[in-house]
Specification:
about 30% strand; about 35% helix; 4-stranded antiparallel β-sheet; 6-stranded mixed β-sheet; Rossmann fold
Length: about 260
């Protein structure tokens, strides 16, 4: 039985959600609660439905059944611009036009807040500068994206998402292409966004120990269903790891963070 831990109100919730690609069912009758102003990690083996669920919660895929609620309101009733103002999304492998600079890309994050012929404002500029400062891309502002390393490009895309200033961030494998130091920086950034900027963040992560250390709410997925959900210390155990990943392990206390630490056997 999945454990659902949420002392705060739900920011996003899926109720009886089913998702399919054609006749192939990926998710069936999913109930998933994302607590407000917390960092939720979606973790599971390849093919467990993590990215599909994230895309559907972002409104980029249509659920074949059930409903997805944002602050209690169905996202199906929200227009694209309102959805973009409230939910920022970074998917895997984003592509930008050739020659676009980091500054150009980050400025794209302001489109939900501007009218068709609206002038660039001081608020727009401040949002972009803050986003680049938080992601360490300020010195790269005038550099073309296609000349950057994979890690630098990933940070630029994250800066664009932050410039959107949405209350919810949905990130699909955001540590892809990042070396260990930049992975730690990104996880610390997410912590700051949740703690100091009152963001609700949902990220698909492959590293279970990374999720256990940084996320306050972990959802373990297997075959499109929730195997367990809640605080890492409540749901990460030898039994759940064996069930979800098919791996024998020891779960010990992380000597630094005090969170569960999975050691495969």
């Amino acid at each position: 039985m999945p454990v659902d831990e949420s002392n705060r109100s739900a920011k996003i919730a899926g109720r009886g959600v089913s998702i399919a690609y054609g006749s192939r069912r990926i998710v069936e009758d999913l109930d998933l609660v994302v607590p407000e102003r917390r960092f939720t990690a979606l973790v599971g083996p390849n093919g467990s439905g993590k990215s599909t669920i994230l895309r559907t919660f972002a409104g980029l895929m249509r659920a074949t059944g059930g409903s997805i609620l944002l602050d209690g309101r169905s996202i199906a009733t929200l227009g694209a611009r309102e959805m973009a103002r409230r939910v920022g999304v970074l998917l895997q492998g984003p592509v930008a036009p050739e020659g676009l600079t980091v500054r150009d890309l980050v400025q794209q994050g302001r489109y939900p807040h501007r009218s068709l012929f609206g002038r660039w404002s001081e608020a727009d500029q401040a949002a972009c500068e803050e986003a680049m400062m938080l992601t360490g891309t300020t010195t790269l502002a005038d550099t073309p994206l296609d000349t950057l390393s994979g890690g630098q490009r990933q940070r630029a895309w994250i800066a664009m998402t932050l410039a959107q200033q949405s209350e919810v961030l949905l990130l699909d494998e955001p540590t892809t292409f990042l070396d260990l130091a930049h992975q730690i920086e990104l996880m610390n950034l997410i912590t700051v966004l949740v703690r100091d900027h009152r963001k609700t963040v949902v990220a698909v992560l492959h590293d279970l120990n990374q999720a256990a250390r940084y996320a306050e709410h972990v959802v373990l997925l297997k075959d499109g269903r929730i195997a367990a959900a809640g605080h890492p210390s409540d749901v990460i155990s030898q039994d759940t790891i064996a069930d979800v990943f098919g791996v024998r392990s020891m779960v010990i206390r992380d000597p630094v963070a005090g969170t569960p630490l999975c050691v495969p056997l």
